[in-house]
What does this fold into?
Amino acid sequence: MKSAAAAVALLLLAGLLAGCSGIAAVQRPAEAKDALPADIRSKDPEMPSGFRFLAEDDGVQYFAAESPERTTACIAAYPVDKPDQWMLACSDGITGEREIVTTSHMGQPTVKLVTTGFDTKALEAEGWRKVHANVLVGAVANP
It folds into this structure.
């Protein structure tokens, strides 16, 4: 009986730890700056809403959202001077601390969304630049 109770306790602990993954910045109350630019749109009705502004770097604004159960997360990148080159990408199955999704658009930096607490040292050693705890920027995508 003790082993069964221990197994249940371990499963509960694992569930709690898994629930800690995700993007902490999207948990704060929304502010006016969090509104996605009108140019950014998706036809996917399952896409998380409630985007939060994360950072602006080199004229590009970065926003993120995640589903309430933290199983889907999205990154949006909006180049203010080239609004037609916006990017939006989502990924399912957020578990643990990891890279979530990477996206690019010709003429814009490649963008990577990572979970809060993910160790980005290896990515940074590869040339990725951290612009926010959850956002890394890579090389400009060329044709």
In short: The longest strand covers residues 72-79. Residues 1-19 have pLDDT under 50 and may be disordered. The beta strands are 52-57, 60-66, 72-79, 87-92, 99-103, 109-114, 129-132, 135-140. The CA atoms of residues 33 and 54 lie 10 Å apart.
